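[step 3/7] fold_predict: job queued, chain A
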Amino acid sequence: MRFHNVGALTGVGAGLAFAVFPLLRPWGDKQGGLDGMTAAFVSPLWVASHLVGMVAWILLSASAVAATRRVPALLMALGTMLVLPFYGAE
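[step 4/7] structure written:
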């Protein structure tokens, strides 16, 4: 499989994962009440949605690297490594 095809496939995968993230994520923490926040944070969907979000960022970076294999794509991959702890700490 050529690099271009890998870039396209990972790009589509990233798009799907970014679309699934808000569908899975519980939004009780955005309602402003402590009960809603607690319910959102203890929900198994919270962990699942954030794992999907992390996969989306990884696939997006892989797509850029596979499509171009240039310095900006590698910098994007480095940026992804810096963003991923946010998904774990949120």
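[step 5/7] annotate
The chain has a mean pLDDT of 83.
The first helix runs from residue 3 to 24.
exit 0
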